[in-house]
Amino acid sequence: MPSFCIFILFLYKICSAETVGNTEPSIVSVEVGESVTLNCISALIDKSKTAYWFKHRLEHKPQEVGYKINGKNAALQNPFKDSKSGFQLKEVGRGFSLSIKQVQKEDEGMYFCGSIRENSVDFSTGTFLAVSGKYTVFNLASA
């Protein structure tokens, strides 16, 4: 048991994770079909080699939306790359933004960015994207 504790302390020393405050509101509400842009603060990715955007929905594991490697173009991951919502990653000044051109109900969730440096991982506090408006609900039990 003592060797396990020493291993955990070793991992904590070489690779720590931190939460960095975000200037984005903690909740953003949009209608279906509207566009929205979330920004990753420059303090979070300023010295980063790689910056990421993640989406997390209740009762699901977090999904990687996309990433930007310092000096290279940003890349979206599936299913966001082929989504009808029109996800887009953009470098804005020294920040990193995530835009959704036509928000759909399934885009609802907690979005947060993160960065990886040589020996640490930093995450933003996150922004919950609440989606309201007209959408169709199918009742399969009565079909």
Q: What does it look like?
A:
- With 143 residues, the protein is mostly beta strands.
- The chain has helices at 2-14, 42-45, and strands at residues 16-20, 27-31, 36-40, 50-56, 63-69, 75-76, 87-92, 95-100, 109-116, 120-124, 127-132.
- Helices cover 12% and strands 43% of the residues.
- Strands 1, 2, 4, 5, 6, 9, 10 and 11 form an eight-stranded mixed beta sheet that branches.
- Mean pLDDT is 76; it is low at 1-22.
Summarize the structure.
This protein is mainly beta. Helices cover 12% and strands 43% of the residues. It contains two helices and eleven strands, in the order αβββαββββββββ.
Q: Structural class, please? A: mainly beta
Report the span from N to C terminus. Answer: 57 Å
The poorly predicted ranges are 1-22
**Number of DSSP E strands:** 11
Strand percentage lies at 35-45%
Shape: globular
Radius of gyration: 18 Å
- Largest sheet, described in full? 8 strands, mixed
Average pLDDT over all residues: 76
As a percent range, the share of helical residues equals 10-25%
Total DSSP helices: 2
Order of H and E elements? HEEEHEEEEEEEE
Signal peptide: 1-17
Domain Ig-like: 2-124
Main location: membrane
Membrane topology: Single-pass type I membrane protein
Map the helices and strands:
Elements: H1 2-14, E1 16-20, E2 27-31, E3 36-40, H2 42-45, E4 50-56, E5 63-69, E6 75-76, E7 87-92, E8 95-100, E9 109-116, E10 120-124, E11 127-132
Parallel strand pairs: 1-10, 2-11
Antiparallel strand pairs: 3-8, 4-5, 4-9, 5-6, 7-8, 9-10, 9-11
GO cellular component, one term: membrane
Main location: membrane
Keywords: Adaptive immunity, Disulfide bond, Glycoprotein, Immunity, Immunoglobulin domain, Membrane, Signal, Transmembrane, Transmembrane helix
